[in-house]
Design a protein that fits this description.
Elements (H helix, E strand, L loop, with lengths): L1 H31 L9 H5 L19 H13 L22 H9 L2 E5 L6 E5 L13 H6 L12 H4 L3 H10 L6 H6 L42 H16 L3 H29 L9
Antiparallel strand pairs: 1-2
Length: 286
Amino acid sequence: MTIRLGGIIVGLAITAILVLWSLVPGLYNLAFGEAPEKAASYAFYEHPKAPEGGFAFDGPMGKWDVAQLQRGYQVYKEVCSACHGLKFVAFRNLRELGYTEAEVDAEAAAWTVPGIDPQTGETTTRPGTPTDQFPSPYPNAIAAAAANNNAIPPDLSLMTKAREDGSNYVYSLLSGYGEPDPEILAKHPDFETPVGLYFNKYFPTVNLAMAPPLVLDGQVTYADGTEATIPQMAEDVAAFLTWTAEPSLVQRKQTGWFVIAFLIFATSLAFLSYKQVWAGMKPKKK
């Protein structure tokens, strides 16, 4: 009995020492250490910007605006694809945006994708097929960095999932380029934007290496006649990239409503069963 009690006490002592050894340094750094350096993107989260009226897929009842997704794809194809790929999205997925099978085939064939020469086995290029993924515009990371001021453009397939509040993040980034605000210049007289870098009002604490992709209204001519202003193009491509990152978003919301309805029904049924089973039982008097 004494040995067992001694083992318990020793075990508790060792556990306490390990817990303190793990927590004390962290608590000390939290209380007396320097604050961690904030990421460059943190400035966006202090002043987020959403499109006027929000996105159609926002909220528990949100749905995809198919016409908007098609416009967003057009902006990606004509503007963003010059620097960014969509390696996790296949051309056949465009059918979910309302394109017919023939339109998807034609769209895929309009892209050039890497291939292998069947005669020589050497790397070559060929027209895309519906089963191919969207290609990267650069053969490798070195070529991408060399063409973009030593910054490698990221793949956009999952961008809105990789950034907090990703849809609004993309919208703000694309619509926020311009000259520094007078308030920033007044607070930071030494602030300047070097040649080759760019100012964005939603990221005022950092200069961006990415040049503004949307530079003027009408840069894209929409097939449905929608006026292609910079905010409109930014909103449309942000919606499209939300779809590429989470194509089942709306379906997941709809499934959630069915699950909630089932849980309410099951709970009601269980309560009524409880009342039926115990209906004849009377509580004992004290």
